[in-house]
Here is the input.
Amino acid sequence: MDVSQMLTRPRRLRGNPLIRGMVRETRVSKASLIYPLFVRDGENILEPIPSLDGQLRCSVDRLGDILEDVAKAGVSSVMFFGLPDHKDEVGNQAYAEDGVVQRALRWAKERYPELYYITDVCMCEYTSHGHCGVLCGQKVDNDKTLPLIAKTALSHVQAGADMVAPSDMMDGRILAIRQELDQHGYIDTPILSYAVKYASAFYGPFREAAGSAPAFGDRKGYQMDFHNRKEALKEAALDVQEGADILMVKPAMSYLDIVREVADNFNLPVAAYSVSGEYAMIKSAAKAGLIDEAAVVCEAATGVFRAGASILLTYYAKELARWIDEGRIG
Ligand code: PBG
Here is the structure.
């Protein structure tokens, strides 16, 4: 090869950090991060979660310990997951006025009003059988579950939630929630839909943390089959029609093609959830000394944004915020 004929040299734009920073195509910002947080019944509890090294289950009265750190890191949004002491067939504690998420919202909104509060809306942490809705025999009854999901969302908003995020995967739940909120005057409260949620083994550590593994069977009757791509577009389109404000794809890492498809096909912001199994894998590999934790987390998070998401839900939100400040990504 005659190198004098080589007009284009991609390395010219990689010569030093300044030029690399200038031509960077994906920018990662702290404003895009949401931190998932487990609130449980009880008092004075701040307990480590064995399956999620570095994460805590925390009672309402100790929420300040975590929210303080979140705010200090510069993360402005949290997503609450509720862990009730009492579970029953129909998940009463999901929509109880004094349920754990409802109390957490009242407590936190008063003390940390500068944060943005999102709630996961689902039944599985509240039902004795661990399924995401009410049962009819061995099956989750879609249409009987809808009013309970809508009621749960409303009770969260009444307790102060800024946004609700249904993760149950019942058909029609976005419309059911939208109508319930609107009828009660909450026309301006957005819905972040877990629109494209696959039945995934990557949720394992979360179910351990939440004690929400199904007592029998699995979630394949309502969560999506991971072999499918077109179905993701169908689910997203339905949620757009039903009034969703933000579309979420979950999990993130093994589904970046789906993130790209959803981002290309809809004019709504796209979020991705880097789930418990993704976190646990990186944590344990880092602990074993096999990978550089910060470098890998930064690379994985950037991949999600490069795929088209503009919002990332991650257990690494606080650390990522710090690494953004330190210029490890940006
Ligand atoms: C509730 C819910 C789950 C997750 C988020 N919301 C569990 C599930 O669907 O089984 C998983 C989150 C994670 O793994 O980090 N339905």
